[in-house]
């Protein structure tokens, strides 16, 4: 019926101008070829012009930030309701770690514009560099070659600022009363349980559980930070065994979908049993070259590095 009415309108003869009523002046004619802004064109459907690119980007970021804030708020409620004190402590640690390193949440931390910009630049610069080095390292070890060296153009300022940031978060949540520094036993427990999905809170894998192969960047970062002379160098070298051991546990619980840092298929959390102290002692006694090679072998297996390809030019491991 609606279509038919439209057709009838189209064939109806046009009406001439009406004569003015007695005693009223004739209406002023509108200029030819122009329509006032309020008059819709009779022949062209008006469409709102698209918003400028910066406005569209800002709107997209606002929607993303709103979703991100809601997810963090949901995690916060779950943590506050957790009855087990030790589990709540570990959940607090990873919540704070995500909060401090997610650029989308920096505005909630009360950082100055300069601090926020500096932290964002450091994290966004290191993330792809760590990923590229991890894959190169896996390729070297997987093909029987030597350990890859760290790139010489790594921005030390970025590395050192993130090193301090991560260490501050660890010290805030994983230290013992009356003892300075990060407690290694708590650090092991935190990353072991996290790697096996035992701290999963839902509703998304990104909440207190690994959501991609970027988990291995913890070990990669420890390798890099331990290879630079600074006040926290010994901490990263001493804790490297924790991140390599938890990488092995992580790969037991998650299966790679592609030879890149893509999303992993999340399995059911494995039954968790704390690693015996004797096994941790064995890990702690491994030398840095041994840990580097073990980490490379794990990565090569996880990403199915083609071992038939030729070995790259020999290089020395980072000191």
Characterise the protein shown here.
By secondary structure, the chain is mainly α. The protein is 53% helix and 2% strand. It contains ten helices and two strands. Strands 1-2 form a two-stranded antiparallel sheet. The longest helix has 30 residues, at 113-142. The N and C termini lie far apart (82 Å). 26% of the residues are buried. The model is unreliable at 1-17, 29-46, 60-65 and 306-319 (pLDDT under 50).
Head-to-tail CA distance between termini: 82 Å
Secondary structure tally, helices: 10
Question: How many E-type strands?
Answer: 2
Radius of gyration, in Å, reads: 30 Å
- What general form does the structure show? globular
The percent of residues in helical segments reads 40-55%
Strand content: under 5%
Runs in which pLDDT lies below 50 for 5 or more consecutive residues are 1-17, 29-46, 60-65, 306-319
The main sheet orders its strands as 1-2
Mean pLDDT, nearest integer? 75
Largest sheet: 2 strands, antiparallel
Order of helices and strands: HHHHHHHHEEHH
